[in-house]
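It would be a great kindness if you could assist me with a short task in structural biology. I am sending you one protein, given as its amino acid sequence and as whole-number tokens for its backbone shapes. I would ask you to consider whether the tokens describe a fold that such a sequence might reasonably adopt. The full record is reproduced below for your convenience.
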Amino acid sequence: MRGRTATHRPAVHVDSDSPLGAAHPRQEGPTDLRLVPPALAAWATAAMALDAPPGWVAGVVALCVAAAGRLLLARRAPVRAAPPSRSMRASWSKSSLAAVLLCVAASAASGGLHGADLRRGPIPESARRFDRVTAEVEVTSDPRLTRPRIRGNHAAPTAILLDAEVRRVERPDGTMTRTPVLLIVDARQRKRPWAEAGPRAEGAEGAARERAGSTWLSLLPSTRLRVIARVAPPLGGGDRIAAVLRVRGSGPPEVVGQPSATQRFAGELRARLRAATDGLEPDARALLPGLVVGDTSRITPELDEAFRATDLTHVLAVSGANFMIVLALLIGPPGRAQRIERRGLAPRLGLPLRATALCGGALTLGLVIVCRPDPSVLRAAACGSIALLAIATGRRRSLIPALATAVLVLVLYDPWLARSYGFLLSVLATGALLTLAPRWSAVLRGRGMPSRPAEALAAAGAAQVVCAPVVAVLAARVSLVAVPCNLLVEFAVAPATVLGFATLATAPWAMPVAKALAWCASWPAGWIADIARAGAALPGGGMDWPGSWTGALLLAGALTVLVFVGRRLLRHPWLSCACGVLLLLVLVQPPPLTRVITGWPPPDWRFAMCDVGQGDAMVLAAGDGSAVVVDAGPDPALVDRCLTALGITRVALVVLTHFHADHVAGLPGVLRGRSVGAIETTGLEEPLDQAEFVHRQAAVRHIPVTRALAGERRRTGGLDWQVLWPPPSRAPGAGPAPGPIPIPIPGLEPGPVPEGPNDASVTLLVRSAGLTMLMLGDLEPPAQRALLRSPAGAGLRAVDVLKVAHHGSANQDPDLIRRVAPRLALISCGADNPYGHPAPSTTAALEAGGAQVLRTDVDGAVTVGGGDEHLLITRD
């Protein structure tokens, strides 16, 4: 043995009961952090080099390479008269610094080259001039629809977005290029006038537009198109696109090059997966493709908002967890890959470790192809695979170097990841799971908590604490239900994902089997959606927070203090339970308790004006948790929160005064979790897209839709109301009004065709407990004057409460204001709205008539009660 004593070194393996495959600390030794500084330096350098001029990049590269070379040469020189330990430390420091400098040089070069792609070629120059160009582009992502956005009284038109690269611009010189762009296909529907096209032609044109839109949505990555587009600069700086190409989507795309065989294969698999989930409940049907391959095309805005509010959006994205779950099926539970009793499919198939690793790599490659090789998918594959392999070998000491290696390789491969919030959140979450979670889990187990719950709670808590400041920057909001919601969905994610992948694998050759597997997967997927909706519906589920890095630092400090206090609370079980009960009360905010603490809403309120921003939503109490809701505002979450605070569980009738988006877009929030008797609307179904939206919402929930006409009178509980406007219309093509037959008013004749949706607003005169309220919708002065002349409005006299028309705009008829002479005027408008609502002239006229004016942008939600003698007004 050459003079050395042989020693027996025990085999390094992990205890089967240790969490996450943790090896014995004496066997693992201290964590190796040498790769962390080079990874962080490369990350920071890549983020800065993307916008840097070429001269700066070349100077940094040359300087770093020269300095690194000098350090490495100095390391090789002999060190005299120095102790061995000091010589080793000096050598290690020089090597580490040289590694940092070389990584900085490499990331600067990579970032400079990628950033130059945005500045070279004809497209950036054309964008500055807003030219119209004809170009050949290659699609690099799946098409996606923009989320509906409310802009004033209408919803922004839906557009189709595609990431693409311009390969050639049709010029006399046939310029070739490779410039990343964002392709925006205008998919709006333009309604033709009655004089130009009848209903049949309108339907045929709409069907043609729908077919064209579906063709755009079916495009696969690597497809080449010829487009004629208007080029514009990107809206914000720091993006990986050089320009925005806006294309009219009235016709199908002009395909000049078919997608690659790989993308066709992936597209077929994804289409089969969607087909296998077609018969499921809506939530499971939308969620399963997202869980498996990141296909979120079926996720509704409402469900997406619920996932955002509960910080569960990582479930809808392809993350490292997807790869870890699938690879765990192959190699078994973490920490057993080197044990004789290892589990998974690999030992059952007789595969040795090396063959298992190769199969795992092939499986990862297949997942990348099916899930699309986008930067987020590549990041997830790298982080998930490296972390899983490190865990599977039972060497926790190698986890941090593995993460640092993944960061370094990915940033050098794609420097744009250095500016990606998704990449930052992924690295922070993984780092928290590798560093904080094991320690917190040990503390919880030391306090008597079982191993599995302790691991789950520590993992969810660590990831949330580390990621919350960054999420606050993006959302300007902090979720208080993120940790419990993540805990509740954790046990459902794995079976839903595994069954989803099984559905994906069987759908191409055995669709009945795939449908059966999809049905099984729908149960955990439905549970995930239910948890997201329930968490988002909690009144105290989140709180607004400054959406800046200053706010992020404040939140990080607050969370640090919370963790410090929480560790000491664990020593006092009773105090911990009391804090848990207090947190539960804050989240749930039971209406009786909230009423006692805040005094809002008062127990005898009759009318309520919800604060829904720039829109309208009124609630008329009908007793015993029942109400009539007039308009739904622009945001489902805001109107749902208001109805929950008011204790409304049943809605006898929803009256939508007209179809502008700021009055109807929040309808899903009214219908959420409540029984609704019927929906009543105006007869003029414009804008058409919003009218169709209302009918779809009603059809899904089997709620009848009726039409309101002047003369109709109804009563429910102690609430009585009369429809004053609109009168029967002579609009072409308007058939008989469905719904209840209005009580005829003598002298009532068909009125003129309303000039627009505002003048077709349903106007109500409401009586409750001796109070009268006039609700004008968005009536303009011509319709207000016509209302005064009509038989229904001729008897209008002074009212107690007036819901001012059109958010208090300047377009008001002074005769109507003088006639009704309200004691209280309510104006629903959004803070700092761009329309100047309410107009100073309107508020001045109301106050001159003796009315007290309350507005939601200043006073918040308002409730009104009392009787003939006095009004009881309460503000939220």
